[in-house]
């Protein structure tokens, strides 16, 4: 094993004596992990492209393909054992506040267990993102968030690639196109559309599709993307993320910061649960307590900053443990309001059992939202009915979700009228756009996503602990090539974890100032002391390979 | 008297096969790569929460104890709780099983009735132009992958002609008071047409070809010649004498086909968005949901084993020459 290494090192020494008298080690074979082509065609494609460019830098790159279940084991739960991997963050309404991404993904405290699985550790960056969290003035906070993005662009902890566009479509002969809402960073598949879409003719039901089964309809369980479409409609929240991506009062009439750690929320008058009981401030306080009770582990983190809740008339006052700028988005827009008369006994019972509230499925889920639960046929369909008594009553009569695992069939169903809103299409978006071009009754809408795709570097393992090395690897690939070849144009190039869809927070300079090219990357490596010998990249002087076989 | 002991032994044998299936299923899923940890434990969880969940799933116990617990629960009719859905497996599996069974048996009965009649006819027409056209045709249908055939039928009869819906068991938002009300509704049969046709076209080849070759053997036998000499009508000779005798191996193949068909259902249920056990099974396997995958496989195994038992026992009733003595 050592013999070939030595000979090549010796040969290298002869050829490079003038430049560098001391020879450093050759960089080991680098693994790049991706999910299979069948499951993630774009990801598979861009890893191949990236591996190809890296090889041109003199790296030996081994692309390793594994399904998600295995990947999470090999990467997330084995944090010391991988080199580089394709990864993604998906867009969710609560990620409209940059905190979850700029803080959780890179703060050093989340490196051991949390989202910072790459092990990025930069005290200066930690300080910045801690500061944005407690800065309540939006403009001031914006400058900090932009500075954090600039720091990431400099450090290149990840190789950011693209923000994909989500493409959905609907039937314009059924729904008035002017009433379909394109939510920033989310697309037309959103609660606002389902509330405002106005029927033009006899069909008054929104019939949409999902390729995933519905797992649960439970306000205390984050059970899946599709499930959240339902809970967002059946349950109200104090605030909701508006079409512009910013939180706005919903079940709250208004809110007011009393001081840095106290916020008073006034509940809207006259709200009722779907079973006819009135919605009280006690219900609201209970909803937050239930989320923090330990019986709803997934919601726990969203109420962690609440120290105390007090009620006075229709006012609910939250005292926080420390100032929290993301509180409106991450807590008030996130926690489902649930009726105390139903859930209090459930929580009490669950406290005595070894299961938790996630296992409890109501026969008829009761919320106070703009749609009420109608029926649920296992793996086939969920029907919601418009709640005419709601202050934001939907224009449609029913909301019918069909489970269609066959993606091609879903598009066919949209054309034939079996569904009138294509809300899920995991396949090639160009197919949807082509279908819409062909059929005057169909409109496809593509929206830049909050989520993003990237290649993560493991900072625990050299040479990825060297920012210069990461910068060079990142610069070796032109993002426009990735967008064109892997995403077929349905994405925008990215160099920041804060999507351009979040216009207020996004630092456009990070992307605009980005330069790429193989010569540039080679130059960057050379400047940092790396050298290519016999076609293989070697560490800078004095650095030895500690992880080779 | 003897028949009863034979049947008893056969039942005992069935129970043994079932136990073997249960055991293999249990260990098979646990030896697969990937872990339920990855699929169900949110990375945001604290180590205590992760440990708690592991304990709840029973995954903190040694494998042999997990197996004994599983067997014990099974004896009480408890299939466990799905990791993914956090709900009892038995409930889900029993809710989906009828959809799969009705699809399987409808298509198989259609395939076997057609296959037997057409097979007998083709044997009768041995050497004719009809045979020269039909046999390659049947072989072609046997060679078509089910998902491809399903997509083809969808493209032509649903998206092209608009005659049939593209998926599901009912029109959007339609409600039925009971399973029976659903199954007896015209809408259900309308929705079921394409998936049943797909499965039936795919599976008619086996009974057809089997029947044809059996018939050709039987037709050469003395009793058929005898029947002809007696001057019986063609119908009587082919159907009442020859076909009855050629039918027996086809009967056995029916029992085996039930197993194969459920396998085929996995694909057809996905193509036609049919809420059956097959789709659930794929999902459970891909997400390492052991209890659900085991439960679904077990249901299918039970159906297959029962069908084989029934076929065995019926054999004696159909053919007096076969006895259990």
From TrEMBL, chain A:
UniProt-listed Pfam families: SBP_bac_5
GO molecular function: peptide transmembrane transporter activity
Keywords: Signal, Transport
Superkingdom of origin organism: Bacteria
Presence of keyword Signal: yes
Parts of the chain that traverse the membrane: none
Alphabetical GO biological process terms: peptide transport
PANTHER family (alphabetical): OLIGOPEPTIDE-BINDING PROTEIN APPA, PERIPLASMIC BINDING COMPONENT OF ABC TRANSPORTER
Protein name from the UniProt record: Twin-arginine translocation pathway signal protein
Signal peptide location: 1-24
